[in-house]
């Protein structure tokens, strides 16, 4: 009887293990990554360098969302006289012409709009004990999009848009780990994109000189799955010839802040709460590939 009980227990454990393996593979089987382009920079998704986050004013609203309606036809004598005053003796309309949108920026010609290009790479780094030995897991993806407006004459006038990272495309040292990250950890099937929304760029000033590095910070909100937390990136960047922006950004976040649980695996232990985030970026003029 005892032997039969032991056999039954081992059978149950084997079935449970097999079920766990099947679940692990199914959970990590997410759809193909969606091809996206960098979202445009708008008043809702950007903050000029040196500014603190604030609600956008009417003047900062995107031009596409503002309209000017023509007044309804006047019916009073006073309005008729006003219309007569707007026409000169020779019949020419003297109404003031509308001011060009973004006149100052267009006149200066010093602002260039850039987008992340090939060579951009996002990484996360996290410590664990793997089979009793210390190990740092590194996850890498090149599926990163975003836009940056650089004011070459006055860096304090530079702006950033949202940065999107495709969570379905992280690659580590093993396929099993990749499936765990895409599936039970990040749930990339439902939450495909990790989004960083910049709210303030601190520490930029002066003019951009080719090849000269600038150090600054970017404060913003990082959304992983359905949780958003404040994050500050330390950035070093330089503007090269041809209006190519290159640089590195780094930050530290915590798994517990985003409720990121690690599946229980026999040979993995002591997974750290601290996660390092790194971005090596190259951005070129929009429309040049």
**Radius of gyration from CA coordinates:** 27 Å
**Main sheet: strands, sense, barrel:** 13 strands, antiparallel
According to DSSP, the number of beta strands is: 13
Mean pLDDT score:
79
> Helicity level, as a percent range?
10-25%
Q: How large is the count of helical segments? A: 4
Taking the alpha carbons of the first and last residues, their distance comes to: 73 Å
> Which descriptor suits the 3D outline?
elongated
- Low confidence ranges: 12-27, 53-96, 98-108
Please give a quick description of this structure:
With 289 residues, this protein is of the alpha+beta class. It has helices at 2-27, 77-85, 103-108, 175-185; strands spanning 111-116, 121-130, 133-141, 144-145, 147-151, 159-160, 163-166, 193-202, 213-224, 227-240, 244-254, 268-269, 274-285.
Topology at a glance:
Blueprint: H1 2-27, H2 77-85, H3 103-108, E1 111-116, E2 121-130, E3 133-141, E4 144-145, E5 147-151, E6 159-160, E7 163-166, H4 175-185, E8 193-202, E9 213-224, E10 227-240, E11 244-254, E12 268-269, E13 274-285
Antiparallel strand pairs: 1-5, 1-13, 2-3, 2-12, 2-13, 4-7, 5-6, 7-8, 8-9, 9-10, 10-11, 11-13
Helix pairs in contact: 1-4
Primary descriptors:
Lipocalin; 289 residues; 4 helices; elongated; alpha+beta; 13-stranded antiparallel beta sheet
């Amino acid at each position: 009887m005892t032997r039969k009980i032991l056999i039954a227990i081992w059978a149950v454990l084997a079935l449970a293990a097999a079920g766990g393996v099947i679940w692990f593979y199914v959970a990590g089987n997410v759809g193909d990554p969606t091809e996206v382009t960098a979202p445009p920079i708008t008043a809702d998704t950007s903050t000029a360098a040196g500014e603190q986050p604030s609600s956008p004013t009417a003047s900062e609203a995107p031009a596409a969302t503002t309209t000017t309606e023509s007044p309804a036809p006047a019916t009073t004598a006073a309005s008729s006289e006003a219309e007569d005053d707007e026409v000169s003796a020779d019949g020419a309309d003297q109404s003031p012409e509308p001011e060009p949108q973004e006149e100052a920026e267009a006149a200066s010609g010093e602002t260039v709009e850039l987008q992340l290009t090939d060579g951009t790479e996002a990484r996360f780094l996290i410590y664990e004990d793997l089979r009793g030995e210390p190990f740092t897991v590194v996850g890498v993806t090149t599926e990163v999009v975003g836009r940056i407006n650089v004011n070459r004459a006055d860096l304090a006038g530079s702006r950033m848009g949202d940065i999107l990272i495709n969570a379905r495309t992280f690659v580590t040292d093993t396929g099993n780990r990749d499936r765990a990250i895409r599936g039970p950890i990040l749930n990339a099937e439902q939450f495909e994109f990790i989004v960083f929304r910049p709210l303030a760029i601190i520490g930029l000033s002066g003019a951009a000189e080719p090849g000269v590095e600038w150090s600054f910070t970017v404060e913003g909100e990082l959304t992983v799955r359905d949780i958003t937390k404040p994050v500050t990136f330390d950035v070093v960047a330089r503007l090269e010839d041809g209006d190519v922006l290159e640089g590195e950004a780094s930050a530290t976040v915590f798994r517990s802040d985003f409720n990121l649980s690690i599946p229980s695996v026999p040979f993995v232990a002591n997974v750290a709460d601290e996660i390092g985030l790194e971005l090596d970026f190259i951005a070129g003029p929009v429309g040049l590939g």
